[in-house]
Amino acid sequence: CHRSDFRNELERLATAEEGQGMPAQLHLGSKVVACDPESGSITLANGETIEADLVVGADVTCKSTIRNTILGKALQPLPCGISCFRLLLDASSVNDEIRWYTDHPHVNKTVVWTGFKSLRSMVTYPVRNRRLINFVGYFTDEDQGKPDWSPNATRQDVLDKFHDAHPKFLRLLDLPIVSPILKWKLRTVPALPTWVRGRAVLLGDSAHATVPFMGQGMYKRASMAIEDAGVLGVLLPLGTTQDEIPARIAAHETLRKERAEFVNKQSLDWALANNGDDVFEPHCEYFGVSLY
């Protein structure tokens, strides 16, 4: 499935009337500008204060208000010198030059071309019942620190960056592009001294944003965030009292922090250490250990 399908299903499960507990209520467009971990409250940009038993800070990588509050200072994620293009291709417009991809028996698997002389990798996989092809192109980006760096990109930008890739892969980019072409700076969050304070806890990218290698990239590090959520769910069953929460979230940190930081470091080390000749692997399957 496409990442948005996965996210939408999680939202449906969280807000559905059926199931244990009260359905989640979503407040969209409500920017959090402050947090009081001791009282378990947040303040919105409109001045409203919301109190709860627990504050979970899953508020993205770069500007996590909850993380800054828990740490007592602002923390900037570290750019790693790698960027990636992301786009969706219309798989219904295949021609004979691309049929090797759509008709291959492993079409439901991830197919990868790697060129690690300067760390370049093209990752493709079908989504939406093979109607679309998700394309991700990783590359060493020496322009990340420039003031005119832009997150916007064109088809030609992608072709220029991967001009010497195997022609079979380049033909995929002849397909109609049915999404914006995004360019992301890959960043990591350094190991934090703590994930908890009072009745506030960090989860996902705000705690341990990871570069998308070592199996951490298909849903932008979602695997680690889902593990976080699973552990919190076990530690905070229905009936947990407010007084029990600080000890429970401290246990969450004990169970999760070492593993998440290990995966973070291994993923970055893998990206920076793997250099060599360009490789074409039309039958490569991605198992979260190596791209080749």
From TrEMBL:
<dbReference type="InterPro" id="IPR036188">
    <property type="entry name" value="FAD/NAD-bd_sf"/>
</dbReference>
<dbReference type="GO" id="GO:0071949">
    <property type="term" value="F:FAD binding"/>
</dbReference>
<feature type="domain" description="FAD-binding">
    <location>
        <begin position="47"/>
        <end position="261"/>
    </location>
</feature>
<keyword id="KW-0285">Flavoprotein</keyword>
<keyword id="KW-0503">Monooxygenase</keyword>
<keyword id="KW-0560">Oxidoreductase</keyword>
<dbReference type="GO" id="GO:0004497">
    <property type="term" value="F:monooxygenase activity"/>
</dbReference>
<comment type="similarity">
    <text>Belongs to the paxM FAD-dependent monooxygenase family.</text>
</comment>
<dbReference type="InterPro" id="IPR002938">
    <property type="entry name" value="FAD-bd"/>
</dbReference>
<keyword id="KW-0274">FAD</keyword>
<protein>
    <recommendedName>
        <fullName>FAD-binding domain-containing protein</fullName>
    </recommendedName>
</protein>
<dbReference type="Pfam" id="PF01494">
    <property type="entry name" value="FAD_binding_3"/>
</dbReference>
<dbReference type="InterPro" id="IPR050493">
    <property type="entry name" value="FAD-dep_Monooxygenase_BioMet"/>
</dbReference>
